[in-house]
Inverse folding.
């Protein structure tokens, strides 16, 4: 697949190791890490190598110290990083950032962090941020589960977006799928009450898997028809928009006749 937004998606080859065993107990602080900070566990992404062009490297050198960081053990102070206090949304798998940039520009009231492992993809987004003067995007390079566990405080996120994660279609690879029960529990623990998880996939089997996992997560309730909710009822009051820009990857999926499944949940008030 030629995904435009692909860090949860199709970007990096996994490093062998034990599967993640994240649980809602991730409410506690950062845990010790071993191995590479980019690939600390059996990951949901594939590895792809690529060098930056000279212009990408120049833009990276100018912008990354301000808008980018590597995954780390310290809790993230988003207010200080963005220079303002605003609702925080994370996009897992921002890829080359076509959708990321469009959503940030459409929702200037939000602080948006894109998570990606593939540096050339990030470099394209860095160039666009610089070229178009987009002020409400920050970028983290590393494994999204590691970021959520170590850097994001419980109940601090207004939204989490996961668009077109790698479906890992072969049965023996299903353990590498990002959206497993433990990861959904972790995401739910990081959402504020009323916060939104928005997932989109063009893979029917993965859509069914995500639906089953999401519907079984006790902290989440359905907000659109696919998840048993009413999108018209929730669209006006949700803290983030339900719309997505149509990327080149999604356009190819439409032309191939693949149905796009949208799954939207909200964090319940306990």
């Amino acid at each position: 697949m030629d995904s435009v937004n692909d860090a949860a998606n199709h970007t990096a080859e996994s490093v062998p190791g034990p599967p993640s065993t994240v649980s809602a107990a991730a409410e506690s602080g950062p845990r010790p890490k071993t191995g590479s900070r980019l690939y600390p566990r059996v990951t949901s992404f594939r590895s792809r190598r690529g060098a930056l062009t000279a212009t990408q490297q120049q833009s990276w050198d100018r912008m990354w110290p301000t808008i980018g960081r590597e995954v780390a053990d310290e809790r993230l102070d988003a207010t200080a990083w963005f220079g303002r206090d605003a609702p925080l949304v994370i996009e897992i798998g921002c890829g080359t950032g076509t959708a990321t940039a469009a959503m940030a520009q459409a929702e200037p009231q939000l602080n948006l962090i894109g998570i990606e492992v593939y540096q050339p993809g990030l470099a394209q987004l860095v160039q666009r941020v610089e070229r178009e003067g987009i002020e409400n995007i920050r970028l983290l390079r590393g494994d999204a589960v590691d970021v959520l566990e170590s850097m994001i405080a419980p109940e601090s996120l207004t939204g989490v977006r996961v668009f077109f994660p790698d479906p890992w279609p072969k049965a023996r690879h299903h353990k590498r799928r990002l959206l497993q029960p433990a990861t959904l529990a972790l995401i739910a623990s990081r959402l504020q009450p009323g916060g939104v998880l928005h997932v989109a996939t063009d893979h029917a089997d993965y859509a069914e898997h995500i639906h089953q996992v999401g519907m079984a997560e006790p902290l989440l309730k359905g907000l659109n028809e696919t998840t048993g909710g009413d999108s018209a009822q929730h669209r006006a009051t949700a803290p983030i928009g339900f719309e997505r820009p149509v990327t080149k990857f999604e356009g190819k999926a439409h032309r191939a006749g693949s149905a796009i499944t949208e799954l939207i949940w909200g964090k319940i008030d306990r």
Notes: Residues 1-36 have pLDDT under 50 and may be disordered. The first strand starts at residue 68 and ends at 70. DSSP finds nine helices and eight strands in the chain. Residues 181 and 212 are 9 Å apart (CA to CA).
